[in-house]
Amino acid sequence: MRRERFPALDGLRAIGAIAVVTTHVGFQSGDALSGPFAGILSRLDVGVAIFFAISGFLLYRPHVVAWFEETEPPLTLPYLRNRALRILPALWVAVLLALLLVPPGPGVSWLSYVRQATLTQIYVDAPAAGGLTQMWSLATEVAFYLLLPFLAKLLTGYDRPTRRAVRWRLAVLACFTLLGPVWMAGIVSTDRAEAGFWLPGYLGWFAVGMGFALWQVARSSGRLGPSALDTLTKIPLTVWAIGVAVLLVAASPIAGPYSLNAPSPGQAFVKNLLYTLIAACVIFPAITPTQRIAAVLGGKVGHVAGDISYGVFCYHLIVLSLVERATGFDIFTGHFAVLFWPTLLLSAGVAAASYYGMERPIMRRGRHDRNYDVSPVGRDKRASAHPSNTDPWTNPEVSPASPSGQG
Question: Per-domain residue ranges for the chain?
Fold first, then answer.
């Protein structure tokens, strides 16, 4: 079966990456700790929730399609190979660059870099290597990659996809969105800070995308009837406006401090739940896009931005460190724009060189596909969630979807 594409998700990958860069520059400048925009800057780490929701959608959807079509689900070993081909080359280059270019902080040893390279750093209470602190979310995402084949089997392997079965599974996935808030609230009350990076705290963000994948396939095949979600597909700007409103709520002290100080259990619960809602509002219009949204987010610019977004995520803290040293910048002294624009533009340049010069050739060689691209151009300019006997969304490839998460 031919591989389907969701073009608007390309642009969302880029938006998520820019959000992560922005919050880190905001922290280093101090503008995310105090000042008129501190709340917004500190909460743009919601970009991680957007990444996770995109991953949940793209990676779970082939399992749903296989369930509906009564075909074999994606094979686990090729799926894991493709995940490794996507994430490991840039990760290992970033670790090497951090080792060579970023001064190590107190308590950082060669073992710190080994843990980063093997994505095991979140399971040890030890300082993170400089230039790589953002990689906790990649380690969490890899935990989801490993869990997904088993979770998908539990959700799709034992019943026929009747309307009742679909609704029951949607309810289960909705319950998953409460696991993260509960987990994060509980962790605050313990002395195991590293457990705040583990998958249970973020499974709800992945479940948002998984639920949308199940709904979209079920709706486009006619297995589910019309619902309120169908109305929301017609008002994407309103859905995004709701997401912005929820972000403004999250930017208040109700979601915890702007600094690295520990929140209260209630604040940790609220922040995780609000980020779940924001991720849902952000990605839903992109999986049921209007023609204009598909053109804006999934056009040529969105295509390139989606390709390099993972590299921007991997390299931006290394670039930020170099920019700070080159300009003699002292942290927490303000001047956000002085750091932001050089960091973003240079990170994009490094990411583009990495993707087109290393990552894509490795993926093409590993997949034995000379034309493979993370964001292929020219397919599925528009898609619909409504029932149709000819809707191409009901006939996707059931091999692993293109990678998302941090890229």
Answer: 8-394
